[in-house]
Here is the input.
Amino acid sequence: MPTATEAAPSDSGPTLGAVVMGLGYIGLPTAAVIARAGIPTLGVDVNDHVVATVAEGRVHIEEVDLHGLVQGVTARGLLRAATAPEPADTFIIAVPTPFDADHRPDVRHVLAAARTIAPVLKKGDLVILESTSPVGTTEQVAATIAALRPDLSIPGRCSGAADLFIAYCPERVLPGRILIELIDNDRVIGGITPRCARRAMAFYRRFVRGACLTTAARAAEMVKLVENSYRDVNIAFANELSLIAEGMAIDVWEVIRLANRHPRVSILQPGPGVGGHCIAVDPWFLVAGDPVNSRLIRTAREVNDAKTDHVIGRALRLIERLPDTRVACLGLAFKPNIDDLRESPAVEIAAALARRFGERIALVEPHIDTLPAAFAGTGAALIDLDTALATCDALVVLVDHDLFRSVPLDERADKLVYDTRGLWPDQPKLSAWEALLARAA
Ligand code: SAJ
Here is the structure.
């Protein structure tokens, strides 16, 4: 197996072009960045609306600078979109890998993408899986292609040099910084064979400025799961501290800020729970792979999920004590300054409040125009920040958007505030609201 070293590229990369399967939060920016490097790129998606949008040079997701880039590369004919793949040299699979009700990974979309590209593959082509996947999925991709294309020799399944190159290279980009991190982050490239890893590295070298590090496909799959589990465990530590501090009436954000002055302590921030489609999901892939030895990872997941339930319970009790007050929930996205509501604890909390209190709950989310289905029939309305500050006496801060951070103290000093993000350190420490609840307890 290859070692985790930077090897030299084995060839100059593709000439025909690239196909990116999946035009979502990762696939579309990836396709656009590849196209910008001068590689003719076809983005493929099962959703007609997404394909039509991208084909017109527009975007269906909000990401810094993405619209301008997609507009530019489609105008130059470097990026096209379609519902079916065409022959190319490089095929990148960037489709969702959700989990089922029992937290077991579901790789159906990955294998479906492998089946879709199989008919157009030819000798010398490179297939790269980028979707976060349980260990062993790249080998499953190879097996899927092998079953459909007995005419091609498949790496890991033949002796000598195979006809195809198959590798795993996880995306590692942070929503909100995707276009920067696609270029600057180091890439871990795991080949089914060392030859596959070198071939994939030659491809990434064409647009990645960060280091390209090669290893085996299974190790690269685990690296991705480990990165997000590491973050989840550390956020769980912060969330656990927030519960302990709350019980002791201590400001957890001040405690963390001061503890982090230690040269070897770097605690993350507590919040209303962990959202998004990565950190709240990927640790379960490790747990599913080895349930016996993943106790800390599983507990961290449970701690972070339980934090959302804790916030719901506390907010319900606080609002119940203010029967005539209109309450604004600030933020619905899963993290600041993005429009992504997937697996968002803010949506879960605000929807629970909306179901209980109906039109008394107002929702402020500057990055969306319409409320998600979770609010259907509740009577809760989407309003802007200024209206919320003018009409709501109580605020539940769920997301630390920059727009909210910029509200000066004199515009909120008389509000009752439940701040789950530590957004406003100058807000009175034990607000009148919390004091009310404390007296009731
Ligand atoms: N969060 C906290 N406290 C913190 C940091 C985050 O509560 O101190 C919460 C956020 O509010 C959010 C969730 O965690 O709800 C996840 O946000 P995030 O910014 O930590 O991560 P993602 O999901 O946007 O992106 C992560 C990144 N992984 C790591 O930082 C290890 C990114 O690099 C990955 O590419 C991405 O997952 C992915 O696609 O897997």
Notes: The mean pLDDT is 94. Residues 132, 171-175, 227-228, 231, 235, 268-269, 271, 274-276, 278-279, 334-335 surround SAJ (CB under 6 Å). Residues 250-440 form a domain with the Rossmann fold fold (CATH 3.40.50.720). The CA atoms of residues 102 and 288 lie 9 Å apart.
